[in-house]
Task: inverse folding
């Protein structure tokens, strides 16, 4: 779902949300494995916690960047940010 | 001294620097003119200090691991950062948030140190993000430029996407083995399908960072849009750090499946070189040009990594050291010109030699080193990489690699031609290069010439590797 | 005799040039440096001869070895045998002449001389090195100066030519590199030529590596069909550039093909000798016929270089002692002769501002010295006895004739035919340049100046020394050729 | 014994003159150039005569046979154990004879040129060239090694190139010297390959050694050489034929003669030196030098020599009848006479009653004719030079009635004409008689050709003579101030005339024969009647046609128009060559080669470049600038990698 969203959405904020979705799916993975496959190890849980923390940091920076982009272009559409190519 | 301090020395030093900068920033406003020399001095001290008291050992339940080789790698990165602080003086003086920039830069560096030293996936992931997110912010430092924020956006989104994939891979491994510690993991790695899938996902993360084709596409755009120091940092320091980490991961953890990744790396190396070269052929913007050329260089690094021998590892470290000098020299010259005139196109460089012979020679030296032409060090670096790959006997790849050197020479010569041969009605006027940048260029130039001819550098690296 | 001198003198000269202030200083410094080098090489010659006369029978003399990259078994191993001494002498002659001829370069004089000296440094290093890695290093050192010299100081479509030259030569070096690595891993992980020659490299590896190495060096010495850099490169280069290219650079390839490809990989050489012969015979004939159609003097000489260098490769391909000795002599002879030819062309061009044969005429009247020089080199090129070309070509022919089978015979005869074609184009050129009615526009031109005269005389001395008294050169070369042949025949 | 130094000085003195005049001729030796050269050559001539005397009468003979002596030899270039180029001196009857001939003629030319070339701007250069030429020629005849001979052979070629092209700013002279050099060069290719063949089979380059290995029936080399065959002809025969091609080129044998008439562009004394006496007979000398090998081991090749010689003699004589340029007439006559010498060798045998069963008279006759011909042909050329000097034209139509204006020239020229026409008792008579006799014994067909040719010779020579000195009255130009020429020009004429008149009485066979043993020259009065009568008939015809200015020659020419025209145009051989070189070599080989190089080989490189560029252009779409597409590639790449790894 997350990947799909990332590929198709044109709004940068939505794309960022898609990525969060992807990360959350990984979180689910870790928690699931931890709970059902390796119940006696806590690594998965820790991992999840850290992922959440990092995702937050990442989102913060990303949103800052997107705001900056918006200031210069008056748009958060990804297709308006294709100045550099080839 | 306590093991904690010696082993964690590099990291602690960098952290200390970050705090110093923070304090300075908070306490009062210092002019860039005074702050910059201070930073340069601190970085120099940091650099020098890195060479002492390097020991082997691990900390935090083997989440952190270090040895002389890793220390050496960190030192190399330190040198690179010091050079960056020197070379881009012009840009630093102009920027409004000098302290912040260096805080971000040093944080990224810290992330890289941990990345190299990481002994476990959690550490690895954290370090990777620490090494990435500040850089994305750094990419946006030319606040008034549209392209700068565009590149930052591309960087942060791509890297987030890539870390998503990486995490997915890690979660699979965790699901299969229940282990996230490298040392333990090495014992259980095998080439079952599911593990290989996870392995590939892991590799994509490295590949993304190293800009291996086809995971390289962000590179050029980000390089072009970002401010020069960021580009230089990305292309040199970050590449180096990831390459070191890659070696550690492959040699330490995935040694059991070496048969699988050997071929893969060779193929990737060749493709990377080809694509990098083909794109570099047509570039007009010097930064974009260097971006693609650095992709091609990564192809060569991969050859060395793929060789899976101590010689290969040594060659990679050696090459990256050389690469730092050469690429930084090239970026440095480009930055000086760009800062003074705003010109970044190769066509604008026409007739540069007439007005700025010194810059031209340094640029030429750097480019020849990148192209692997003696007597510059790049020749030795490339030769050793290719030789170590040849030890496996895969001559087909070697021949393609050697042919790629020709293509790359072609486009490097394009720049040389513009600088030395083409006539220009209005060449770039004579530039005043400030003393720090001059020092930086001089160090780079000396490095390019001497690193190859003086074999003890290589011998030292090789001794450390073994 | 310390061989390191041979690379230290040019290096010191190059650095001195960089520190020189005025153009005049630059010129004199380079000239003095090159002359010292010339004396050093003649000293080397006499030292070599006396050492041999004193009964030192080692294959290489004056050996020195320093560890360089012990990890790869790379050592800075240098030494010379007679063949190398001959090539070094050639280089020294050409360098001095080249420095003198470039006296009029006003544009970026300092850089020009610096690059020239760097180029010569590469050549000297190449000839004295006994380690493949070192050899390759010096080979490549010589590439980029050529590119810059052509690109910056050249004429005509210089960028195109410079590019083509650099890329093709890099292509050659790429092949050499791979072949070299093959030898390294096939021959017990050593780059040392002497060690390698003592080990037996597996046949399969020999075959592959020989192709790579020979083709690689072949690119440098204009092996058909890799010769296309030669005409463009030579014709676009400034005078000294052409002299160095033809006189020195092409010899690097020939020497490498002999010393590395043939000497180290005798089995491979035997396997592919026939192909070499065919290609070089084609190159010889084809080069000479292509020369017929040229109107530009430099193109003419460039194509004739293709033809003449074909003799070098033919000699090597024949794998007999006489032929190989002939190949080396041809290298020396061709180096001196083309250098002189290009020098003469350059002098003419400087005055008439044209290189088109049909636009000139009667220059013998206005510039007798230059025309005479042109004439003598022309004669040398067509193999007149008493000049160096004859000696070399005849030695190759006689050596080639030692094979009795039809294949070798046909190839040899084909090669012989080129001497007629050579006569045709040389006389055509001289006939319309030096002879014929004097063009009015050229009536007021002056003859050579002192520096040009000196340059020409130095090269002429070389040509005559080889042409009139070939025995000393032969004494020099023969032991070296002998060893190569022993290696070839021992391989069975 | 022999004094090496005195012999070696003979070639070295002209060389010294060359070097001296070449280096300093323009500066401080300018005035004295001519005298220095003459002095040097005079010394050389004296030494040559001294050597000849010593050789023939003092030490040359052992057991009644003239020995081949090698007083000096130095290994100049050692190819391998067997083959080496030695620079040496070989003395035998023919080389000693040639020494005399060459120095003598050269000396005459040197002296003559003092007058003829007076006032030339490049006077010293001219003498330098003469010196070089003389040196090369002397080196050639003294060669002890076939490769040494080749060396000097080439040097002769180049010095003749220089001399012919002396008037370098005259386009025709440039063309002529180029042609001369290239044609002979082409022939030299044959010589060179021939040398290679011979050296391979005989295992030596040395003349004396080669003589033993290739002629003694026991030698293994000979056996292998004869058994090794190519296209049904033995290798040795091929070798000899190839060598002969070289000789034919230098000696202007048909069809390699085309350079000779054009070469008359050089100064006339040069023509005398090159074409009369020295260079053109080099081919004959070569065949004579290798005669034992020819006669004993490769008789087929000798046959070829004979027929080529005869054909050349005839063709040249016919052409000579139609030419109007007096120097060209002489040139063709030279060719014709060389033809005589060649076929004389061709019909000869090594010794009486040898393999061919004929006599060895031809060899002696040939050499004898070479000797006499040198004298009278040099005289003819120098005489013609005097005439040209006087009237400033080469064309017959500008001459006539000159006998009163230049009496000495007239008389000497007449003597020469009589000599060449074979009228007794002049020199030519004796040598030609011997040749005819040899031909009669050896090959009847050739004998008849020779007979006819000698009649033609008499005709065209006297056509020339009458046209110059009789015919119409000479209209003296106003601007022609000088007379017949000074002492320096007349002296050589007189000396040579004396030689031409008297040389026939030398008992040549005593000194020169194929096997070194003295040969009694046979003389049959009855046999001589036919040639002499025919010769006189030729003279008579010429007298009738050309003594007075009249219409008859034109009428005859008109009635024989086809033959006349083709002969006048030298049987179109030149045109054939032009066709071959222009159309075939340049258009069909040279141009395609150049084209191939430009388009295909160069194209290959450029195409490689442009392919790279195109690929680079084509794949630029990958880098679309869209971050989402990047991610797609990323994922797809990753998946492909995963699939490849997991399932392969």
Result:
């Amino acid at each position: 779902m997350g990947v799909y969203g990332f590929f198709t959405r044109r709004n940068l904020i939505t794309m960022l949300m898609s990525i969060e979705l992807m990360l959350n799916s990984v979180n689910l993975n870790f928690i699931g494995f931890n709970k059902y496959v390796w119940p006696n190890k806590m690594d998965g849980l820790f991992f999840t916690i850290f992922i959440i923390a990092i995702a937050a940091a990442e989102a913060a920076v990303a949103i800052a960047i997107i705001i900056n982009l918006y200031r210069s272009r008056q748009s958060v559409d990804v297709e308006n940010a294709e100045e550099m190519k080839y | 001294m306590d093991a904690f301090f010696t082993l964690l020395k590099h990291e602690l030093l960098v952290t200390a620097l970050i705090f110093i900068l923070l304090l300075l920033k908070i306490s009062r406003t210092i002019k860039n003119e005074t702050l910059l020399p201070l930073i340069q001095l601190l970085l120099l001290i940091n650099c020098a200090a890195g060479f002492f008291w390097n020991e082997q050992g691990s900390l935090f339940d083997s989440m952190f691991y270090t040895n002389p080789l890793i220390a050496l790698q960190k030192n190399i990165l330190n040198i690179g950062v010091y050079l960056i602080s020197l070379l881009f003086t012009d840009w630093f003086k102009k920027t409004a948030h000098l302290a912040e920039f260096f805080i971000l830069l040093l944080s990224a560096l810290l992330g890289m140190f941990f990345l190299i030293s990481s002994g476990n996936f959690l550490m690895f992931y954290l370090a990777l993000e620490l090494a990435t997110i500040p850089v994305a912010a750094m990419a946006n430092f030319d606040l008034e430029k549209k392209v700068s924020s565009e590149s930052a956006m591309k960087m942060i989104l791509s890297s987030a996407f890539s870390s998503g994939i990486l995490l997915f891979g890690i979660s699979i491994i965790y699901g299969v083995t229940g282990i996230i510690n490298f040392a333990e993991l090495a014992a259980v790695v095998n080439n079952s399908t599911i593990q290989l899938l996870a392995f590939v996902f892991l590799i994509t993360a490295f590949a993304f960072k190293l800009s291996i084709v086809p995971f390289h596409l962000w590179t050029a755009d980000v390089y072009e849009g970002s401010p020069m120091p960021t580009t230089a940092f990305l292309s040199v320091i970050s590449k180096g750090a990831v390459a070191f980490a890659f070696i550690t991961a492959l040699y330490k953890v995935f040694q059991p499946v070496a048969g699988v990744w050997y071929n893969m790396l060779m193929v990737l190396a060749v493709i990377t070189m080809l694509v990098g070269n083909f794109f570099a052929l047509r570039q007009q913007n010097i930064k974009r040009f260097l971006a693609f050329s650095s992709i091609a260089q990564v192809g060569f690094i991969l050859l060395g990594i793929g060789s899976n021998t101590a010689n290969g590892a040594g060659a990679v470290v050696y090459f990256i050291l050389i690469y730092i000098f050469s690429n930084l020299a090239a970026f440095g010259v480009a930055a000086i010109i760009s800062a003074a005139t705003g010109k970044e196109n190769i066509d604008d460089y026409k007739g540069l030699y007439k007005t700025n012979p010194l810059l031209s020679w340094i640029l030429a030296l750097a480019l020849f080193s990148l192209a692997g032409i003696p007597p510059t060090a790049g020749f030795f670096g490339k030769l050793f990489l290719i030789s170590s790959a040849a030890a496996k006997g895969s001559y087909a790849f070697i021949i393609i690699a050697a042919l790629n050197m020709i293509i790359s020479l072609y486009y490097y010569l394009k720049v040389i031609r513009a600088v030395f041969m083409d006539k220009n009605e209005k060449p770039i006027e004579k530039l005043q290069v400030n003393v720090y940048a001059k020092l930086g260029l001089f160090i780079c130039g000396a490095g390019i010439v001497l690193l190859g001819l003086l074999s003890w550098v290589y011998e030292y690296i090789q001794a450390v590797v073994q | 005799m310390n061989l390191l001198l041979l690379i230290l003198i040019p290096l010191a000269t190059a650095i001195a040039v960089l520190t020189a202030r005025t153009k005049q200083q630059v010129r004199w410094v380079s000239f003095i440096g090159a002359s010292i080098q010339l004396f050093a090489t003649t000293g080397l010659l006499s030292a070599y001869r006396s050492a041999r006369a004193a009964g030192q029978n080692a294959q290489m003399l004056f050996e020195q070895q320093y560890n360089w990259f012990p990890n790869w078994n790379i050592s800075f191993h240098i030494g010379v045998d007679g063949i190398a001494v001959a090539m070094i002498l050639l280089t020294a002659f050409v360098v001095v002449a080249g420095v003198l001829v470039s006296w009029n370069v006003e544009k970026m004089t300092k850089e020009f001389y610096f690059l020239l000296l760097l180029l010569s440094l590469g050549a000297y290093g190449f000839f004295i090195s006994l380690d493949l890695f070192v050899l390759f290093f010096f080979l490549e050192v010589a590439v980029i100066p050529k590119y810059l010299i052509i690109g910056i100081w050249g004429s005509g479509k210089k960028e195109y030519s410079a590019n083509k030259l650099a890329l093709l030569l890099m292509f050659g070096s790429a092949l050499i590199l791979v072949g070299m690595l093959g030898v390294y891993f096939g021959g017990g992980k050593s780059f040392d030529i002497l060690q390698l020659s003592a080990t037996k490299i597996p046949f399969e590896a020999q075959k592959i590596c020989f192709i790579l190495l020979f083709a690689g060096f072949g690119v440098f010495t204009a092996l058909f069909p890799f010769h296309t850099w030669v005409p463009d490169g030579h014709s676009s280069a400034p005078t000294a550039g052409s002299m160095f290219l033809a006189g020195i650079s092409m010899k690097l390839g020939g020497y490498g093909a002999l010393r590395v490809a043939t000497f180290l990989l005798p089995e491979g050489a035997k396997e592919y000798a026939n192909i070499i012969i065919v290609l070089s015979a084609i190159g010889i004939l084809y080069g000479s016929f292509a020369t017929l159609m040229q109107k530009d003097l430099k193109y003419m000489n460039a194509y004739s270089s293709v033809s003449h260098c074909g003799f070098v490769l033919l000699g090597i391909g024949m794998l007999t002692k006489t032929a190989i000795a002939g190949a080396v002599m041809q290298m020396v002879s061709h180096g001196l002769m083309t250098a002189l030819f290009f020098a003469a062309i350059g002098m003419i061009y400087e005055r008439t501002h044209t290189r088109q044969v049909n636009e000139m005429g009667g220059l013998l009247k206005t510039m007798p010295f230059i025309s005479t020089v042109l004439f003598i080199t022309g004669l040398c090129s067509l193999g007149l006895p008493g000049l160096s070309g004859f000696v070399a070509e005849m030695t190759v022919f006689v050596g080639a004739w030692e094979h009795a089978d039809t294949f070798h015979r046909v190839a040899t005869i084909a090669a012989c035919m080129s001497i007629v074609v050579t006569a045709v184009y040389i006389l055509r050129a001289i006939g319309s340049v030096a002879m014929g009615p004097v063009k009015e526009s050229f009536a007021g031109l002056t003859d050579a100046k002192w520096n040009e005269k000196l340059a020409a005389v130095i090269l002429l001395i070389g040509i005559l020394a080889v042409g009139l008294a070939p025995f000393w050169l032969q004494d020099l070369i023969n032991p070296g050729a002998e060893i190569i042949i022993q290696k070839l025949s021992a391989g069975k | 014994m022999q004094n090496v130094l005195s012999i070696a000085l003979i070639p070295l003195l002209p060389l010294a003159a060359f070097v001296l005049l070449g280096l300093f001729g323009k500066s401080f030796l300018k005035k004295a150039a001519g005298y220095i050269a003459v002095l040097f050559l005079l010394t050389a001539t004296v030494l040559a005569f001294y050597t000849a005397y010593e050789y023939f009468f003092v030490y040359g003979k052992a057991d009644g046979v003239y020995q081949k002596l090698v007083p000096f030899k130095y290994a100049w270039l050692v190819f391998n154990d067997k083959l080496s180029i030695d620079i040496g001196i070989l003395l035998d009857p023919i080389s000693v004879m040639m020494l005399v001939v060459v120095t003598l003629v050269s000396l005459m030319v040197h002296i003559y040129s003092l007058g003829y070339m007076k006032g030339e701007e490049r006077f010293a250069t001219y003498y330098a060239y003469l010196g070089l030429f003389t040196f090369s020629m002397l080196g050639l005849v003294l060669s002890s090694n076939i490769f040494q001979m080749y060396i000097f052979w080439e040097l002769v070629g180049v010095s003749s190139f220089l001399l012919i092209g002396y008037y370098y700013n005259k386009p025709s002279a440039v063309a002529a010297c180029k042609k001369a050099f290239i044609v002979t060069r082409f022939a030299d290719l044959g010589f060179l390959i021939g040398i290679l063949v011979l050296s391979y089979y005989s295992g030596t380059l040395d003349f004396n050694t080669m003589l033993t290995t290739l002629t003694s029936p026991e030698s293994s080399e000979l056996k292998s050489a004869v058994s090794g065959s190519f296209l049904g002809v033995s290798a040795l025969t091929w070798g000899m034929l190839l060598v002969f091609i070289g000789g034919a080129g230098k000696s202007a044998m048909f069809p390699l003669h085309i350079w000779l008439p054009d070469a008359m562009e050089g100064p006339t004394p040069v023509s005398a030196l090159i074409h009369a006496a020295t260079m053109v007979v080099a081919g004959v000398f070569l065949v004579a030098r290798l005669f034992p090998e020819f006669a004993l081991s490769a008789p087929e090749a000798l046959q070829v020599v004979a027929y080529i010689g005869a054909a050349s003699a005839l063709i040249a004589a016919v052409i000579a009848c139609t030419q109007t340029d007096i120097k060209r007439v002489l040139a063709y006559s030279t060719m014709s006479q060389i033809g005589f010498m060649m076929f004389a060798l061709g019909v000869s045998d090594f010794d009486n009653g040898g393999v061919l069963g004929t006599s060895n008279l031809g060899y002696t006759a040939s050499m004898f004719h070479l000797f006499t011909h040198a004298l009278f042909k040099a005289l003819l050329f120098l005489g013609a030079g005097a005439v040209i000097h006087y009237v400033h034209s080469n064309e017959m139509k500008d001459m006539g009635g000159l006998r009163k204006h230049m009496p000495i020239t007239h008389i000497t020229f007449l003597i020469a004409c009589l000599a060449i026409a074979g009228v007794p008792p002049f020199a030519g008579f004796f040598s030609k008689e011997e040749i005819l006799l040899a031909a009669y014994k050896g090959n009847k067909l050739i004998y008849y050709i020779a007979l006819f040719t000698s009649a033609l010779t008499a005709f065209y020579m006297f056509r020339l003579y009458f046209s110059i000195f009789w015919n119409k009255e000479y209209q003296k130009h106003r601007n022609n101030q000088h007379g017949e020429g000074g002492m320096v020009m007349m002296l050589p004429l007189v000396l040579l005339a004396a030689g031409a008149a008297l040389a026939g009485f030398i008992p040549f066979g005593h000194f020169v024969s194929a096997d070194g043993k003295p040969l009694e020259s046979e003389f049959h009065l009855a046999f001589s009647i036919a040639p002499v009568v025919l010769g006189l008939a030729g003279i008579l015809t010429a007298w009738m046609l050309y003594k007075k200015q009249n219409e008859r020659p034109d009428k005859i020419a008109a009635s024989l128009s086809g033959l006349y025209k083709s002969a006048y145009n030298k049987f179109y051989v030149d045109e054939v060559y032009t066709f071959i070189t222009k159309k075939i070599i340049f258009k069909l080989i040279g141009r395609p080669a150049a084209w191939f190089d430009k388009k295909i080989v160069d194209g290959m490189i450029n195409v490689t470049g442009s392919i790279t560029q195109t690929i680079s252009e084509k794949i630029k779409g990958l880098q679309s600038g869209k971050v989402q597409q990047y991610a797609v590639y990323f994922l797809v790449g990753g998946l492909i990698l995963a699939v490849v790894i997991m399932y392969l």
Remarks:
- Chain B has 21 helices and two strands.
- Chain B has a mean pLDDT of 83.
- The CA atoms of residues 125 and 167 of chain B lie 8 Å apart.
